[in-house]
């Protein structure tokens, strides 16, 4: 967007409703430096009497012209993201560069928000002394004395001093909890007591529902059980700073909120890297936004209040730095959108399944599916959502009732990462060179750059996008996706939501989505199914109902109230016993419309 005239990149945002053409001619156009010099590319009024300037022609000198217009908010000149500042770390020539670090605060939880590939995990490693910052000099890394001098007078001065003197104890909950069984062989109890500490083990195990798993081998645990174990183990450590890298993955909504409460009760410094905005909202006292160019460089914003930080991130604009980090705002406002309410194309019967005499029992209600609609499936872990999905898809035979006689493309919850190339993982029926595949699947899910890579070499988010693409590429009557948002950052979840809605409408096919991200489910779903019961013992499902009713019924089950943020439309968890929480409970409105 920048021309050779610019050392920095700027764009101009014009609110045409606040523009008076004659006044704009007298002020903005008259004082435009390009217009005054008789050159092309300045502000102009078009045939519709609207004020415009091409993005590529905007330069810093245009600030003077913009400031001449007297109506506040009518014209904004915003700086776009560009690489600048002092490097904290660089991995090598033409490799990733990190500028800035989040600042830990005593007795506070600092949220970290940003796309994958912008250095969030790198920053957490530096903060916890697992990676020594080289200040950009990867050939001759500086000694601690020079590093300390670089951070003198900043909010990180004392923290860097502790790192240099190796005086800082840290505890980190890793991102990829599914890899823990590869690193540690043994039982849950042995893992919690591996550092020789037994005090507090039973107490923390009870909080995270791990007591019944004490004698189970780690390799037998589910993703959710591994996540709870990893969080519990981190909380057991005696540390001055705690890092939680994506603590919500694999957890249901109730577990996420309960975990958030445990994290906020820590009386030490906390950094939380999280993509689930409801969890981040609950955990954080303040937020740092990471922005930049994925895989190339990352930069860190100043600390912002939790609400403003999340909303500014979604807006793509950080006013305090006059910085535009994204061209388009992310909005979850569904008003004015048509629901997918095509003709009914499938009815499925009620189904029951029991696993052994004392095993889990599921009683699933009957329901129907319509063209062009998306049904969100919500409920706590261990209530049979995946069993229901597998019965629908014919992968599990019900004890009573029948799997529907229809073709269902099913994306499983856990994805196998083999040594097969991505392009070879697609089924033969996928017409990958067709315009339909390219515009509805390949482009929006951004999978073309991954074709020549092996599945085993993909990140969790990349593997998830490929799995969704494979599911949608099949010829089927119904598409059923189990936890498609896992490992995806906020931008990727929004792109996923738009892709699924567009696919359903264009293909005139129903989609069923099992997920724990209420923000995604609220955004994409037309109707919803709620699972209730006793986790691991028995579960039952409702018939499909309007998504607002489904989310309200589910939140009533887990005893949490949510409200809609007025600026972005995103669901936000109310603080327990807050005025808003009490108001909604009194009205029986656990999910604010």
Structure description:
The model is unreliable at 1-7 (pLDDT under 50). β17 (351-354) and β18 form a beta hairpin. The protein has 593 residues and is of the alpha/beta class. The chain contains 20 helices and 28 strands. Helices cover 31% and strands 19% of the residues. The longest helix has 18 residues, at 490-507. It starts with 9 loop residues before the first strand and ends in a 6-residue tail after the last helix. The strands form six sheets. Strands 5, 6, 7, 8, 9, 10, 11, 12 and 13 form a nine-stranded mixed β-sheet that branches. Strands 17, 18, 20, 21, 22, 23, 24, 25 and 26 form a nine-stranded mixed β-sheet that branches. It folds into four domains: 10-80, Alpha-Beta Plaits; 87-317, Rossmann fold, CATH 3.40.50; 344-545, Rossmann fold (3-Layer(aba) Sandwich), CATH 3.40.50.300; 559-593, no CATH class.
Pick out the low-confidence regions: 1-7
Q: What name is given to the CATH topology of the largest domain? A: Rossmann fold
Fourth-tier CATH superfamily name of the largest domain: P-loop containing nucleotide triphosphate hydrolases
Rg:
26 Å
Could you provide a short overview of the structure?
This protein has 593 residues and is an alpha/beta fold.
Summarize the topology.
Blueprint: E1 10-14, H1 21-31, H2 33-36, E2 44-45, E3 51-52, H3 62-67, E4 75-80, E5 87-90, E6 97-99, E7 109-113, H4 120-127, H5 144-150, H6 157-164, E8 170-173, H7 180-183, H8 188-192, H9 201-207, H10 223-236, E9 241-245, H11 253-264, E10 269-273, H12 277-283, E11 286-293, E12 297-300, E13 304-305, H13 306-315, E14 317-318, E15 323-324, E16 344-348, E17 351-354, E18 361-364, E19 367-370, E20 374-379, H14 385-393, E21 408-411, H15 435-445, H16 460-473, E22 478-482, H17 490-507, E23 511-514, H18 518-524, E24 527-534, E25 538-541, E26 545-546, H19 547-558, E27 562-564, E28 571-573, H20 579-587
Parallel strand pairs: 4-15, 6-12, 7-10, 7-11, 8-9, 9-10, 18-25, 20-23, 20-24, 21-22, 22-23
Antiparallel strand pairs: 1-4, 2-3, 5-6, 11-12, 11-13, 14-15, 16-19, 17-18, 24-25, 24-26, 27-28
Helix pairs in contact: 5-6, 9-10, 11-12, 15-16, 15-17
